[in-house]
C-alpha cells in the first residue's frame, strides 16, 4: 500500500502541482504509457470482514488475504481479487495507520508495460505542471529480512486528503526472484501487468477490472489529473466537478465531493466466460452482481456508511 510510504517521505522531498485543468490533454502524446494496475479502498469493518470470509469470492476470483512487508518495514494486510492484468486491494477501517485507515480512503496504481516508460512519464509530468515529480523505490521482503527491489514509482505530491495515485514500473530484480512467481517476458523490455500476475485467474470467473468509480476531494483530484494525462489517458470533465479518464481498457471515474463523503464506490469487471443468469451476492454492505453476460458490477456502501 503505497500511500503509507509516501507520507513517510513527506518533508524530505519536494513536489506538488499547480491548478489542474481536467479537460483534454495539454500535450499530444504518441502513445499511452500508463495503464490501470490496481486500486484500493478502505471499507466499513462489516464489509471488509465479510469479504475476507466470503466463500463466493473464492469461487468468483483468484482471491487471497495477504500480509506484505514493504520499504522501511511497513506492513499491510489486504484482501485481493486478481485478474489477468489488474486487481483490487480492499481494507477495513483501522487496517492501516492514521488517515490511510479512515473510511473512504482510497488509492490508484498505474503501471507501465515497457521498461523505461516511467522515465518518459516523469518528463511528461513537467509539461503537465508538476515541476518536481517525487520518485521512490518500493521494496518487498519475502520473509528473510532482505528487501528485494519491487518497483520504481512517482507521485505528484506527498500531501493528500484521502486519496492518492502513483505511477509505477516493476523492477528486473523482482522478476528475477522466483518467490515472486512471475512469468518470463513476452518480449524484450516486458515489465507488464500480465507478466506480474498469476494465471490462476483462468480457473475463476473474474478476468479484469474494466471500470472503477471513486469519490475524492477536489484537492486530491487536482493532484491526480496531471498523472493521468501524462500517462496518456484521455481526461474529460463530468457534471458535478468530477472527471472520467479513459484508456488502456479501463475507465476511471472520479466524483468530486466534500471530505466527509469520500468513498470507494463501484467496480466493474469482465468475466472469462459469459454466464446465463444474474447472480446477486450481498457481501457486508456491498452488492456484487454477476451476469447475465460477461460483466460483473460491485457496488459498495453509500458515502455516509459509518
Task: Please name the defining characteristics of this protein.
306 residues, alpha+beta, 7 helices, 38% strand, disordered N terminus
What topology, given as strand order, has the largest sheet?
2-3-4-1-5-8-7-6
Beta fraction of the residues?
35-45%
* Elements, N to C (H/E): HEHHEEEEHEEEHHEHEEEEEEE
- Total helices: the number is 7
Low-confidence stretches: 1-21
Q: Got a strand count? A: 16
Spatial separation of the terminal alpha carbons: 23 Å
Protein model, in words:
With 306 residues, the chain is of the alpha+beta class. It is built from seven helices and 16 strands. It has helices at 2-9, 45-52, 55-60, 117-127, 172-176, 193-196, 218-230; strands at 35-43, 62-69, 75-82, 87-92, 106-111, 134-140, 148-155, 163-170, 206-216, 234-237, 243-247, 250-256, 263-275, 279-283, 286-290, 293-299. Helix 4 packs across helix 7 (218-230). The chain starts with a helix and ends in a 7-residue tail after the last strand. Mean pLDDT is 90; it is low at 1-21.
Task: Please write out the topology.
Blueprint: H1 2-9, E1 35-43, H2 45-52, H3 55-60, E2 62-69, E3 75-82, E4 87-92, E5 106-111, H4 117-127, E6 134-140, E7 148-155, E8 163-170, H5 172-176, H6 193-196, E9 206-216, H7 218-230, E10 234-237, E11 243-247, E12 250-256, E13 263-275, E14 279-283, E15 286-290, E16 293-299
Parallel strand pairs: 1-4, 5-8, 9-12
Antiparallel strand pairs: 1-5, 2-3, 3-4, 6-7, 7-8, 9-13, 10-11, 11-12, 13-16, 14-15, 15-16
Helix pairs in contact: 4-7
Amino acid at each position: 500500500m503505497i500511500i503509507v510510504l509516501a507520507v513517510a517521505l513527506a518533508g524530505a522531498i519536494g513536489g506538488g502541482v499547480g491548478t489542474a485543468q481536467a479537460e483534454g490533454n495539454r500535450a499530444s502524446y504518441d502513445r499511452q504509457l500508463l495503464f490501470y494496475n490496481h486500486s484500493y479502498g478502505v471499507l466499513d469493518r462489516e464489509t471488509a470482514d465479510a469479504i475476507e470470509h466470503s466463500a463466493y469470492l473464492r469461487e468468483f476470483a483468484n482471491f487471497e488475504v495477504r500480509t506484505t512487508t514493504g520499504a522501511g518495514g511497513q506492513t499491510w494486510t489486504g484482501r485481493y481479487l486478481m485478474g489477468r492484468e489488474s486487481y483490487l486491494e480492499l481494507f477495513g477501517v483501522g487496517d492501516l495507520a492514521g488517515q490511510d485507515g479512515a473510511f473512504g480512503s482510497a488509492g490508484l496504481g498505474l503501471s507501465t508495460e515497457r521498461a523505461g516508460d516511467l522515465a518518459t512519464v516523469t518528463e511528461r509530468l513537467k509539461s503537465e505542471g508538476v515541476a518536481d515529480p517525487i520518485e521512490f523505490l518500493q521494496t518487498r521482503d519475502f520473509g528473510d529480512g532482505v528487501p528485494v527491489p519491487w518497483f520504481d514509482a512517482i507521485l505528484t505530491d506527498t500531501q493528500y486528503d484521502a486519496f492518492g495515485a502513483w505511477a509505477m514500473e516493476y523492477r528486473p530484480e523482482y522478476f528475477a526472484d522466483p518467490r515472486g512467481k512471475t512469468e518470463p517476458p513476452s518480449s524484450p523490455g516486458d515489465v507488464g501487468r500480465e507478466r506480474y500476475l498469476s494465471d490462476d485467474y483462468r480457473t475463476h470467473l473474474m478476468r479484469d477490472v474494466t471500470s472503477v468509480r471513486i469519490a475524492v476531494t477536489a484537492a486530491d483530484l487536482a493532484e491526480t489529473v496531471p498523472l493521468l494525462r501524462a500517462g496518456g489517458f484521455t481526461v474529460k470533465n463530468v457534471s458535478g466537478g468530477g472527471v472520467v479518464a479513459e484508456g488502456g481498457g479501463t475507465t476511471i471515474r472520479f466524483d468530486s465531493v466534500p471530505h466527509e463523503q469520500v468513498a470507494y464506490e463501484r467496480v466493474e469487471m469482465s468475466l472469462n466466460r459469459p454466464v446465463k443468469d444474474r447472480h446477486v451476492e450481498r457481501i457486508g454492505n456491498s452488492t456484487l452482481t454477476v451476469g447475465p453476460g460477461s460483466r460483473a458490477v460491485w457496488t459498495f456502501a453509500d458515502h455516509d456508511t459509518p
